[in-house]
From TrEMBL:
It comes from Sinorhizobium kostiense. This is Phosphoribosylglycinamide formyltransferase. Belongs to the GART family. Pfam families: Formyl_trans_N (PF00551). The active site is at 109 (proton donor). N(1)-(5-phospho-beta-D-ribosyl)glycinamide binds at residues 12-14. It catalyses: N(1)-(5-phospho-beta-D-ribosyl)glycinamide + (6R)-10-formyltetrahydrofolate = N(2)-formyl-N(1)-(5-phospho-beta-D-ribosyl)glycinamide + (6S)-5,6,7,8-tetrahydrofolate + H(+). GO terms for molecular function: phosphoribosylglycinamide formyltransferase activity. It is an enzyme of class 2 (transferase). Keywords: Purine biosynthesis, Transferase. Pathway: Purine metabolism; IMP biosynthesis via de novo pathway; N(2)-formyl-N(1)-(5-phospho-D-ribosyl)glycinamide from N(1)-(5-phospho-D-ribosyl)glycinamide (10-formyl THF route): step 1/1.
Length: 210
């Protein structure tokens, strides 16, 4: 099985959905660690409760972004993950960090990228009058919420939606596509080559209307 480190900053619901998938015997990946930049991230306790080793690297405990990332990179050297899944990790990784793990880092973002990267994505989608929202799993490159797309799913934006109601509708499909994307990458069916996502699995549906 491929070894996966999951990075979180918050409640960790995407991390839990990956852990649930990984608990299935035929799933091609296992979660070897959950790493957070926030000691109070709810996902840390949720991961520990199901026996996953957890690590908190709190930014203010380090003199610089470089020192913070160096500590995380040292832990990753020990863990030797094949894949790093960013799951609500709300900190931009440096170019040096990304280069060190080039092609191995996945991120989930709650919009149909390249629309609405960054923060307040649901409010911006509602304000723009969009009728469709969704989420994207992509390989991480140096830009924010940038990089080749592995999987996307769409949900409707309904009259009366608030950022909160929309976020929870999107989150339910995040949980479905992240495990799909991780499975494709862990099986070698999708990989990043020369900055593009290359699919060796033409029959796999990686875009879905749910
Ligand atoms: C998810 O909606 C994820 O897509 C988003 O944070 C939430 C984390 O929830 N990530 C980003 O906005 C990254 N740009 P979770 O902690 O329950 O998985």
């Amino acid at each position: 099985k491929k070894k996966v480190a999951v990075f979180i900053s918050g409640s960790g619901s995407n991390m839990l959905s990956l852990a649930k998938a990984a608990a299935e015997p035929e799933f091609p990946a296992e979660i070897v660690a959950v790493i957070s930049d926030k000691a109070e991230a709810g996902g840390l306790a949720r991961a520990a409760a199901i026996g996953i080793p957890t690590f908190a690297f709190v930014r203010k405990d380090f003199a610089s972004k470089e020192a913070h990332e160096a500590a995380i990179l040292a832990e990753l050297d020990r863990l030797q993950p094949d894949v790093i899944c960013l799951a609500g990790y709300m900190r931009l990784l440096s170019a040096a960090f990304i280069q060190r793990h080039e092609g191995r880092i996945l991120n989930i973002h709650p919009s149909l990228l390249p629309l609405f990267p960054g923060l307040h994505t649901h409010q911006r989608a509602i304000d723009a009058g969009m009728k469709i929202a969704g989420c994207t799993v992509h390989f991480v490159t140096e830009g924010m919420d940038d990089g080749p797309i592995i999987a996307q799913a769409a949900v409707p934006i309904l009259a009366g939606d608030t950022p909160e109601t929309l976020a929870s509708r999107v989150l339910t499909v995040e949980h479905r596509i992240y495990r799909l994307a991780l499975r494709l990458v862990a099986e070698g069916k999708v990989e990043m080559k020369s900055g593009c996502a290359v699919s060796h699995a033409v029959s796999e549906a990686t875009g879905a209307l749910i």
